[in-house]
């Protein structure tokens, strides 16, 4: 019986509470007044403040991809343009979105869970409710919307910086001339790729923020509970990000 | 009028409230007293629907608040001002913004009107100059008072105070007691004050309710309290270094 | 100066949108700030063309393919593409697929119509050049054809060698073979002529160079004819030899003994360097066909020769 509980009953309960929370959140979507100001604050926290770290990580992973592609593949028989054919699609299809996702699972997911968790254990959420406010609409909707809007923006930044970084290392490191890099990239460029990346980042934005909100909103047990919620939010965001990544690849590609 | 009708509440295996009933009359101030952990705060959260009783019902102005939609419940809640035990100030906002928050959210007052009212509320709790400070920069007692200012900002019909004077020096405590009293008298606010402080009880309350181990042990007016011979109640009050009942 | 969050967020979103659009256009090889001209065409075979492949005029990239789908009404392939709006595509232009799918370099080529014709309007239709399914046809038939050539020439070699032995020998031969001697002599002469032809063909195989793409462009129609001609030649040659084989049992027997690769043509055929010097079967076939294309008369002549025989 305990096994049935941990394997079936509890997950079902979690999924149910998660779905109900989201349902409650989106039922208040029309009530713009309650979160209009909040959403821009959250967009700044989620989007603009994450930009430096996302750009840094993207630049380095673009550069590393270039160097590794050069190291592994380029021989007299293979044209150097292959570097462009590897760096650009991998940045656009996978790295740009997933890398951003991982960074933001840590940065934004943990922040959201800690924030909401603290608000829960210090009764701030109760205080909002007691005033007659819809705490879900006030706290969760702006965070999730900020994720949905700003993740694609960060994805674009990550892809742009990553490709530029890869190009720069390729050119200045003497691995591949700029023209070759671009020609290789163009040879295998599919217009759907960046669209797919955008869709992916949008889904990741939703996944990370909604899971972190869920973990934070239902925090129990004081400071320790906040710590646990924060860790779980970051870990679960990463796990479900990978699940979503696979799911999208299977359904859309 | 608020009527708590026979509610019971458990958290997991632990039952906290056992068939608690309480009637709070319009315009009166009711003190809820009881030992730490006896279930006072839990009872208060039931009154505004933050907790839902396992059994029993809570009526506000004749409406069972567990029976109405969330939107209607929020309308009911907007008539309440609540001071939480920990203050529950929004720590992302300054003291000023905390007090202004309900005004901004539920009224269409202009910024200057709001600034004026916030200043008034903060003056009432003797903190006219802390507006710019963040909650983390305030002492516990100051946080509590800013939270009180926030609870009364909208001049609600009902105010629930969870230990408004705990952690305050006797002098400030008296000011807060006077504030509670004047709000009740001048604005005809119906108040519920949870407290351990018998001095407060005796100076502000019309009636007292004594919760003992999750049960409503004793309810009566202050006069009745003075005359009570109940052993448990007397022990509780005696611990406050007050002497009630027949002298031995 | 302090900007409000709304302005900061709005500016960021706008910048990201611009980067996204320009970035996509850049990698699609579209002019960054100029518009494009949307056109359509219909081909009988897409030959592996996919969205994103480039569109070229005279070898210059001018746009890219947007959509490739089957047109259910005609069973043709409807291809949507766009070109730089600075380049007018006049009426009378023709499109064709070029390049080779397995190498990932398929593209849509446009042969421009007369320059003073009116421009095809936005969303307009460009005629596709009528082509047979050459790539598919060649790849399907290539091994078959080459096997046939191999086998036939092997047979020819055997017969030739056998004939030499017959002619050069004083020893007694079976009656059946003696009676066949006259016809054998004639046949030998014929086969000698053929030997020379085939040898030169194979020399061409060894020596020919050029790219598969070049023959694809331009001469597709005549090539198709050449291929079917070659096919017919080989079929006839083979049936002829089959008949020859049937005339005497002794030749059959000798074929078994002598088909070890002796004689000049045999050596040439079994010389493995021929296979090694050509990178792949397709390249070999291509070269053979190149030769065919350059000198189809030779083969057609031979066909007639065989007919006579
Ligand atoms: N959310 C909760 N989950 C589990 N148990 C709870 C919860 N809230 C309260 N309790 C339990 O209910 C009991 C009553 O708690 P409550 O906060 O009402 O006490 P109190 O009378 O307000 O005490 P104090 O005067 O110290 O504030 C306590 O034993 C507490 O452990
Ligand atoms: Mg309490």
Cα end-to-end separation of chain A: 41 Å
Largest sheet of chain A: none
Name the quaternary structure. Answer: heterotrimer
Shape of chain A: elongated
Q: At the first level of CATH, what is the class of the domain at 1-79 and 194-248 in chain B?
A: Alpha Beta
Q: Beta fraction of the residues of chain A? A: under 5%
Q: Tell me the fraction of residues in β-strands of chain B, as a range.
A: 25-35%
Number of helices of chain B: 9
The residue ranges of chain B in which pLDDT falls below 50 over 5 or more consecutive positions are none
Contiguous uncertain segments of 5+ residues of chain A: none
Q: Report the total helices of chain A.
A: 9
Largest sheet of chain B: 6 strands, mixed
Q: Tell me, what's the shape of chain B? A: globular
The overall pLDDT average of chain B reads 89
Number of strands of chain B: 10
Q: Kindly report the average pLDDT value of chain A.
A: 90
What's the CATH topology label of the domain at 1-79 and 194-248 in chain B?
Rossmann fold
CATH architecture of the domain at 1-79 and 194-248 in chain B: 3-Layer(aba) Sandwich
Helix coverage percent of chain B: 25-40%
> Most extensive interface: pair and counts?
A-C, 28 and 23 residues
């Amino acid at each position: 019986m305990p096994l049935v509980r941990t394997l079936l009953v509890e997950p079902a309960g979690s999924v149910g509470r998660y779905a109900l929370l989201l349902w409650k959140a989106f039922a208040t979507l029309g009530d713009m007044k309650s979160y209009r100001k909040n959403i821009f604050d959250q967009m700044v926290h989620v989007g603009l403040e994450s930009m430096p770290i996302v750009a840094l990580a993207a630049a380095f992973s673009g550069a590393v991809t270039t160097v590794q592609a050069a190291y592994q593949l380029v021989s007299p028989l293979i044209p150097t343009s292959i570097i462009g054919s590897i760096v650009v699609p991998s940045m656009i299809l996978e790295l740009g979105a997933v890398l951003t996702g991982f960074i933001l699972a840590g940065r934004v997911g943990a922040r959201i869970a800690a924030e909401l968790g603290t608000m829960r254990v210090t009764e701030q959420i109760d205080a909002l409710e007691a005033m007659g406010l819809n705490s879900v609409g006030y706290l969760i909707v702006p965070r999730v919307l900020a994720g949905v809007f700003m993740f694609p923006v960060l994805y674009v930044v990550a892809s742009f910086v990553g490709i530029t970084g890869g190009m720069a290392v390729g050119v200045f490191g003497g691995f591949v001339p700029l023209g070759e890099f671009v020609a290789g990239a163009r040879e295998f460029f599919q217009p759907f790729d960046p669209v797919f990346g955008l869709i992916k980042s949008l889904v990741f934005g939703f996944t990370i923020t909604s899971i972190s909100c869920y973990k934070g909103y239902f925090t129990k047990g004081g400071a320790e509970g906040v710590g646990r919620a924060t860790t779980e939010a970051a870990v679960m965001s990463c796990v479900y990000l990978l699940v979503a990544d696979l799911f999208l690849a299977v359904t859309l590609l | 009028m608020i009527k708590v009708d026979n509610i019971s509440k458990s958290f997991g295996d632990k039952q906290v409230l056992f068939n608690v009933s309480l009637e709070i009359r319009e315009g009166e101030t009711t003190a809820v007293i009881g030992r730490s952990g006896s279930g006072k705060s839990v009872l208060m959260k039931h009154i505004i629907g933050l907790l839902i009783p396992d059994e029993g019902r809570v009526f506000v102005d004749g409406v069972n608040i567990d029976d109405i939609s969330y939107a209607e419940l929020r309308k009911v809640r907007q008539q309440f001002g609540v001071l939480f035990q920990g203050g529950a100030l929004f720590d992302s906002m300054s003291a000023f913004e905390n007090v202004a928050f309900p005004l901004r959210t539920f009224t269409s007052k202009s910024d200057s009107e709001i600034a004026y009212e916030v200043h008034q509320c903060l003056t009432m709790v003797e903190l006219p100059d802390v507006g710019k400070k963040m909650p983390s920069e305030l002492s516990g007692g100051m946080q509590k008072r800013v939270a009180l200012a926030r609870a009364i900002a909208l001049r609600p019909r009902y105010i629930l105070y969870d230990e408004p004077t705990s952690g305050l020096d006797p002098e400030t405590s008296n000011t807060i007691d006077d504030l509670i009293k004047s709000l009740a008298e001048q604005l005809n606010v119906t108040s519920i004050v949870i407290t351990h402080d018998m001095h407060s009880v005796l100076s502000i309350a019309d009636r007292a309710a004594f919760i003992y181990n999750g049960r409503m042990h004793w309810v009566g007016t202050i006069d009745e309290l003075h005359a009570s011979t109940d052993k448990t109640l007397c022990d509780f009050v005696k611990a406050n270094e007050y002497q009630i009942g027949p002298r031995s | 100066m302090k900007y409000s969050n709304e302005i900061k967020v709005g500016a960021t979103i706008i910048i990201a949108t611009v980067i996204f659009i320009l970035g996509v256009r850049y990698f699609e090889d579209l002019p960054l700030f100029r518009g494009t001209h949307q056109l359509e065409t219909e081909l009988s075979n897409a030959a592996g063309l996919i969205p994103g492949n480039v569109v070229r005029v005279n070898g210059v990239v001018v746009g890219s393919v947007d959509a490739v789908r089957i047109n259910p009404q005609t069973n043709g392939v409807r291809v949507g593409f766009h070109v730089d709006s600075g380049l007018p595509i006049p009426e009378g232009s023709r499109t064709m697929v070029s390049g080779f799918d397995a190498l990932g370099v398929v593209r849509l080529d446009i042969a421009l119509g007369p320059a003073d014709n009116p421009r095809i309007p936005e969303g307009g239709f460009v005629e596709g050049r009528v082509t047979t399914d050459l790539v598919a046809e060649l790849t399907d038939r290539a091994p078959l054809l080459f096997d046939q050539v191999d086998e036939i020439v092997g047979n020819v070699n055997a017969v030739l060698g056998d004939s030499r032995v017959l002619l050069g020998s004083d020893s007694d031969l079976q009656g059946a073979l003696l009676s066949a001697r006259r016809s054998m002599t004639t046949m030998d002469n014929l086969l000698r002529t053929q030997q020379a032809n085939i040898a030169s063909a194979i020399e061409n195989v060894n020596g020919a160079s050029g790219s598969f793409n070049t023959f694809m462009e331009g001469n597709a129609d005549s090539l198709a004819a050449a291929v079917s001609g070659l096919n017919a030649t080989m079929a006839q040659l083979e049936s002829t030899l089959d008949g020859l084989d049937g005339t005497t049992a002794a030749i059959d027997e000798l074929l078994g003994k002598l088909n070890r690769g002796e004689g000049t043509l045999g050596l040439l055929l079994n010389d493995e360097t021929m296979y090694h010097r050509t990178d792949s079967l397709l390249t070999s076939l291509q070269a053979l066909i190149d030769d065919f294309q350059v000198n189809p008369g030779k083969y057609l002549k031979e066909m007639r020769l065989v007919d006579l025989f």
